[in-house]
Specification:
By secondary structure, this protein is mainly alpha-helical. It contains four helices and no strands. The chain has helices at about 5-20, 30-55, 60-85, 90-120.
Length: about 120
């Protein structure tokens, strides 16, 4: 397993931890709580799917799990963008999380692309 593929489980786990720790919005009822729950679900699902991919039975299985992780990362980026645009959280609080999310999307996309190129 190459460095990028072995690094992504740790990065997605740390990202999930940061998502869980940042759940201050969940304390407020209404829209804030709903968005916080959406962010929590998608932000923690990235790493869960990467972890499932580590137990792959075939290259196609691994690609499938990483595709799901990439989709979850894109959804997470959407919720982060919506939180910033709606001023529910200051943009400076979301900047590092958004940057890491974007990097994870890029990494997962590159892994998937390379793996698909290797398939017969």
């Amino acid at each position: 397993m190459n460095r990028v593929r072995s690094d992504i489980p740790d990065r997605t786990f740390e990202f999930a931890c940061r998502t869980v720790k940042g759940q201050v919005l969940n304390e407020k009822p209404g829209v804030s709580r709903t968005l916080a729950n959406q962010l929590l679900r998608s932000g923690t699902s990235i790493g869960a799917n990467v972890k499932e991919g580590q137990a792959y039975q075939s290259e196609a299985d691994l690609i499938g799990k990483y595709c799901i992780a990439g989709n979850e990362a894109r959804e997470t980026r959407y919720w982060l963008r919506l939180l910033a645009a709606s001023d529910l959280l200051p943009k400076n609080r979301l900047g590092k999380l958004t940057s890491e999310c974007n990097e994870q999307i890029a990494i997962l996309t590159a892994i998937i692309k390379r793996m698909r190129e290797k398939q017969p």
